[in-house]
Design goal:
With about 180 residues, the chain is α/β, with parallel strands linked by helices. It is built from seven helices and five strands, in the order E-H-E-H-H-E-H-E-H-H-E-H. Strands 2-3-1-4-5 form a five-stranded parallel sheet, with helices on both faces.
Length: about 180
């Protein structure tokens, strides 16, 4: 998209990944708030919200996940290409999902929210693990489906010992050190 004949400067993207209930959404909200406080607009692509539009009755099959995350990366790339900064708030249990976004988006940071499975199960506000333990859900990452931890994330957060605000600040520091944000 050109404005007055000029192409906008490309934005950047941060993919916040981790097990369900690890604290991704809280960190994404804290990061959005911190960025907006510095007059830096950003869009959050929260997987649960996008999924309501794309797959309103999700089955969470491997094929559906492959398609969903390919689409999520594509939408993020479109936004970034048009000057919009993006926060992906999505488990993306396979590395290839996050790598696809990294390959599409030049200015990309991966943030791994590390949290022990037992803590995630206790935090389970959406009832994801409870449904899995009752046999009502069959593909919850960390329980019935594997979760591939990032190999070299730009930022690793410990959501047990760090607050969402502390995590957001560490991401802001990484955005600055990668020259995505001015110091």
């Amino acid at each position: 998209m050109k404005v007055n004949g000029l192409k906008p400067e490309e934005g950047w993207a941060v993919w916040i990944t981790g097990l369900p209930s690890s604290g991704k959404s809280m960190i994404a909200r804290a990061l959005k708030k911190a960025l907006e406080h510095h007059n830096m607009p950003v869009e959050v692509l929260e997987s649960d919200e996008v999924r309501k539009v794309v797959t309103p009755n999700p089955t969470y099959t491997e094929e559906e996940r492959d398609t969903f995350y390919r689409l999520l990366a594509y939408v993020g790339e479109l936004l970034v290409r048009n000057g919009v900064n993006v926060i992906f708030d999505a488990t993306a249990n396979k590395r290839m999902y996050r790598e696809e976004a990294r390959n599409l988006i030049a200015k990309f940071l991966e943030v791994y929210v590390k949290c022990p499975l037992d803590v995630c199960v206790r935090r389970d506000a959406k009832g994801i693990y409870a449904r899995a333990l009752k046999g009502e859900a069959k593909s919850v990452p960390g329980l019935q489906t594997f979760y591939e931890e990032p190999l070299k994330p730009e930022v690793t957060l410990d959501s047990v010992s760090e607050s969402p605000e502390e995590g957001a600040q560490r991401i802001m520091d990484a955005l600055k050190s990668h020259a995505f944000l001015k110091r």
